Amino acid sequence: MPLLVRDYTWDQTETQIFITVPLKGVRAGKADIFCTEDYLKVNFPPFLFEVVLFASIDESKSSAKVGNGVIIFTLYKKESGMWEQLPTVEVSKEKLQKKRENAILAAQNKAQEAATEKAIKKRGNEKYSLEKMMKIEEDNRKQIEEMKEQERRNATKELEEWKLQKHEEEELKRKEELKRKEELKIARHKIEAEKRRMKKEDNKIQNIGSRRPNRHSVNRGTTGNIFAENSKEQIIPSPRSAGNIQIHFTPRVFPTALRESLVDEEEEWLRKQAEARRAENANIANLKDLKEEEKNPDWLKDKGNKLFASGDYLAATNAYNLGIQLNNKLPVLYLNRAACHLKLRNLHKAIEDSSTALDLLTPAVPDNASSRLKAHIRRGAAFCELELYVEGLQDYEAALKIDPSNKTIQEDAEKIRHVIQGTPPDL
Questions:
Q1: 70-76 and 63-67 strand pairing
Q2: Among residues 167, 187, 206, which one ends one of the domains?
Q3: How many whole angstroms from its chain centre is CA 411?
Q4: Which H, E and C letters describe 74-88, residue by residue?
Q5: What is the DSSP string of 75-130?
Q6: Greatest CA separation found in the chain?
Q7: Which residue in 391, 359, 349 sits closest to 154, CA to CA?
Q8: Which CATH number belongs to the domain containing residue 9 in this structure?
Q9: Which range in 9-23, 255-269, 389-403 is most confidently predicted, on average pLDDT?
Q10: What distance in Å separates the CA atoms of residue 351 and residue 334, rounded to the nearest whole number?
Q11: Is 9 helix (H, G, I), strand (E, B) or coil?
Q12: 399 to 245, 378, 393, 403, 413: CA distances (angstroms)
């Protein structure tokens, strides 16, 4: 049976109540303190202190200090004024029990309301966080869309500039050809005129030589020889006739059937590859400390491939970096560096290198189909790692257009579709 504590003391002001309850051996965390607006209870076995207050208090502001065998309560009155006594008039055990139950029930309701309010606040915070994350993802998606749109605009601009340059070159060639034909025509006219003039002179000489000679002249034996010598001096061989030499080059044959071939695109791809090879030595003069083999982008590519195969992705990236510094027109260097960035979790750099490789792998021809397939797969994987599944699915679908029979790509694309739709994949 608990021991009721009655030797407490209390004091008050207009707004506060101070209660001192001595409990032998009481320590913080050992005493069970329960307080409502009109009920106060302390349970520290075997001691029990409870009191029904004279008036209401604000339990949210009230406090208790426990230590040195005593508990000091500081209670704030709801209404200012002096109390006639601390407890209310003596009540029966039944009323005290009822008051205790009501206080406990009120405390439970209040705790439940506080928990409900806390849960609502938590859901509000989670909703706010989710909205913020969705906004960040939307901003990132818009930024990537803007980057892609800018890339498309740049590619279109470069293509238009190339078409304009090609048109100007063709126009210049046409003018040069017309000029050459005109000069050739003038030269032919001059040759024909010279031929006619020479023919007239030959006829004139022949007419003079065919006349019958004078007898005195024949006897002298000199006149006929003079005409013969003059005719020999006047006869000049006619110039050779002009002509054209036709040169036929053996055309490059692609494996694509002629009815399906895109000859212009294939020739453009070959031209870009030739320009890339010619640009290999453009920046070597600025890298004087390199060894001879380190000045070869192909050697650096093979070196990077070996480092990648051994798992040293950072060193492989450095090899590809130097190769790109020597020649920034080779798509395989960007493609291989994108694979390194995927391994190193540099996802944005992997997307950038894959996009650059795709820009260099234009126009799309059968010779670069394998490289374009790898570029789409690596960029799609980076998008999916960033949880940008819509963009990743677009790259996987582009890869399937290149190789529709690839089972692995088909399965990966189907998994991404399930993630986007929020449905579990078929087992």
A1: antiparallel
A2: 206
A3: 23
A4: EEEECCCCCCCCCEC
A5: EEBSS-S--S-SB-S---HHHHHHHHHHHHHHHHHHHHHHHHHHHHHHHHHHHHHH
A6: 188
A7: 359
A8: 2.60.40.790
A9: 389-403
A10: 10
A11: strand
A12: 48, 10, 10, 6, 10
Beta-carbon contacts of 174 under 8 Å, excluding residues fewer than 6 positions away, are none
Q: Please give the structure tokens belonging to residue 47.
A: 């001691």
Helices 369-385, 331-343: inter-axial angle, 10-degree rounding: 30
Q: How far apart are CA 227 and CA 117, in angstroms?
A: 136
The pair of structure tokens assigned to 56 is 């209401």
Q: Has residue 215 been placed in a domain?
A: no
pLDDT digits (tens, 9 = 90+) for 163-221: 898 889 889 988 888 888 888 888 888 888 887 877 777 776 666 555 544 444 444 44
Distance between CA 107 and CA 120 in Å, rounded?
20
**Tens digits of residue pLDDT in 341-384:** 999 999 999 999 999 999 998 888 888 899 999 999 999 999 99
Residue 323 placed within a domain: yes
**d(Cα 75, Cα 18) in Å, to the nearest integer?**
6
Domain that holds residue 66: 3-82
Give the separation between CA 381 and CA 395, rounded to whole angstroms.
Answer: 9
Residue 37 near residue 59, CB atoms below 8 Å: yes
Please check whether residues 306 and 399 belong to one and the same domain: yes
Contact status, residue 372 vs residue 363, Cβ threshold 8 Å = no
Same domain, 130 and 156: no
Looking at residue 122, its amino acid is: K
Sign of CA dihedral 259, 261, 262, 267: negative
